[in-house]
UniProtKB/TrEMBL annotation:
Native source organism of the sequence: Russula earlei
Domain of life: Eukaryota
Protein name per the record: Asparaginyl-tRNA synthetase
Upper lineage: Eukaryota, Fungi, Dikarya, Basidiomycota, Agaricomycotina
């Protein structure tokens, strides 16, 4: 009934968003608009205000023929405005609201309001994370997240992938890297006085915040064939780099009956290119305000095939480059951030897939290649960001998988359910994971992933 009620009446009469108002044609009807005051300009016989509600990067200009109405307005205050939408007499937008009445719903003291008009540093805004969404750039980032998420849903839906909700609490570390947050249950003291000092395992065994949805997606892909998710992940890394968060969002896709690394790369490339082709006024806002040059790379990158090279060849190119690296590139060692940046920025001049890494530096679940030295995997590196996507074929041969688990010193019993997937109709399969904040960083030209999420958490910092 509620849906019928909304669709049956004029949305402007119901109470429009500013995006809807700006898209509508001026009329003589009185409308109501809600939002926050961005600026106020008082003159002797007229007043102007700019109102935003976050639904668009553009604000709505409000004109007060009676300037006394605008004297109650201050920057940051929330308001309800009533007026007539008329053609704008000045440049910048087609329409403006001729105000007839204004109500202040939430006052904002201009003397103490932390979000002032002058330039605010990134660190200052991190210290005021509860208010930073009110800035133009952070609002643009959040709208970009929303747009990108919807584009990804569109891509996977069009390719018959099923969206799956995966557990946040798990009993194992998917990577085997020991960087998980462990959960503890601390029961209340009898009588409600304080807490008991006796810690118990709520699930009768150790449990952790998930570092990846991959293993659970693999289980579901053995029934639904093509699955994906976009969910929170947690890693207890103490890294302070611009690419790491303790809590972040990860896109992960998994599908059965795939047998080629090239097929995995094709899907990863196609999904990202589908996003890169989006048109959004926010992207230009992000580029101009942050001044990052690499965002200009994003859209052209959607028009050409992305380079692919093996890890062995990548090491050779690094060694022959003549570039000075802090860490000398050697076969059998992980690529460092400086290596990844050189490969994307200077060698490929765009996104590049690195495939077939040594088995010794990769997780147990990756499928062993015929050379018994490398595994069928890939990392996608993009300019100025480095690694964006990592994926692999999964080891479907149960004996090889069990040997890898044992060799890496993992708890064989904890992964018994995982190996059982191979015993009961298991199929060749593979997939990949992509850091969502890193994708936003690259597309929007945002220098640090801490500005690509509403409430960032990283080692040593959780303000709210």
């Amino acid at each position: 009934m509620f849906r019928r009620l909304i669709s049956a009446r004029n949305p402007i009469q119901f109470g429009s968003t500013i995006r809807q108002v700006l898209a509508s044609k001026p009329s003589n009807e009185s409308i109501h608009v809600h939002g926050w005051v961005k600026s106020v300009r008082l003159q002797k016989s007229i007043a102007f205000a700019m109102i935003h509600d976050g639904t668009t990067p553009n604000g709505l200009q409000v004109v007060f023929r009676n300037p006394m109405l605008a004297k109650v307005l201050t920057n940051g205050a929330s308001v309800r405005l009533t007026g007539i939408l008329t053609p704008s007499l000045g440049p910048g937008q087609d329409s403006e609201l001729l105000a007839e009445d204004v109500q202040v719903l939430g006052v904002c003291d201009p003397e103490t309001y932390p979000i002032q008009k002058q330039a605010l540093t990134t660190e200052y805004l991190r210290d005021h994370a509860h208010l930073r969404a009110r800035t133009d750039v952070q609002g643009a980032v959040l709208r970009l997240r929303d747009t990108v998420m919807r584009r990804l849903h569109e891509f996977f839906h069009n390719n018959d992938f099923i969206y799956v909700h995966t557990p946040i609490i798990t009993s194992n570390d998917a990577e085997g890297a020991g960087e998980s947050f462990r959960l503890a249950s601390v029961p209340s003291h009898p009588g409600g006085r304080g807490v008991s000092t006796e810690n118990t395992e709520f699930f009768n065994k150790p449990s952790y915040l998930t570092v990846s949805s991959q293993l659970h997606l693999e289980a579901v892909s053995n029934a639904l064939a093509r699955v994906w998710t976009l969910s929170p992940c947690f890693r207890a890394e103490r890294s302070q780099t611009s690419r790491h968060l303790a809590e972040f969002w990860m896109l992960e896709a998994e599908w059965s009956f795939v047998r080629s690394i090239d097929d995995l790369c094709d899907v990863a490339e196609a999904s990202i290119k589908h996003v890169l082709r989006l048109e959004s006024p926010d992207r230009d806002l992000l580029r101009s305000d942050i001044g990052a040059s690499w965002a200009v790379m994003a859209k052209p990158a959607s028009e050409v095939p992305w380079a692919r090279i093996t890890y062995t060849d990548a090491i050779h190119e690094l060694q022959m480059s003549g570039a000075r690296f802090e860490f000398t590139p050697r076969w059998g060692t992980a690529l460092q951030s400086e290596h990844e940046r050189w490969l994307a920025d200077s060698f490929a001049h765009g996104p590049i897939f690195i495939t077939d890494y040594p088995a010794s530096i990769k997780p147990f679940y990756m499928r062993q290649n015929d050379d018994s030295k490398t595994v069928a995997c890939f990392d996608l590196l993009v300019p100025h960001v480095g690694e964006l996507v990592g994926g692999s074929l999964r080891e479907e041969r149960v004996t090889v998988l069990e040997a890898a688990i044992k060799q890496q010193g993992l708890d064989e019993e904890a992964y018994r359910w995982y190996t059982e997937l191979r015993k009961f109709g298991g199929a060749p399969h593979g997939g990949y994971g992509m850091g969502f904040e890193r994708l936003i960083s690259w597309i929007g030209g945002v220098e640090n992933v801490r500005e690509c999420i509403p409430m960032p958490r990283w080692s040593g910092r959780m303000l709210l």
